[in-house]
Specification:
Blueprint lengths: L15 H64 L1
Length: 80
């Protein structure tokens, strides 16, 4: 431990800090491109899945409605 009377060393950045900053700046475009591609792929996949779900739900609703109409038709034919 330095004695209280010894002069302090000035605060300087370590030599590896500029290299780390340069490395981070050099990979930034790659990260942005990969992120944008991932976003586009995920968005397209989610939109496709939403369309598939909507189609399946519509088909289920049409089937239920057709069954109701058929039941009512059968009921009316038995009454007549």
């Amino acid at each position: 431990m330095p004695s209280p009377s010894s002069p302090r060393r000035p605060l300087t950045l370590p030599a590896h800090r500029p290299l780390a900053l340069l490395f981070l700046l050099s990979i930034l475009p790659v990260l942005l491109i990969v992120g944008a591609l991932n976003y586009r792929y995920t968005r397209a996949t989610l939109e496709q899945q939403a369309q598939i779900n909507l189609t399946a739900d519509t088909n289920d609703l049409q089937l239920a409605f057709a069954q109701v109409i058929l039941r009512e038709l059968e009921r009316l034919t038995t009454i007549a």
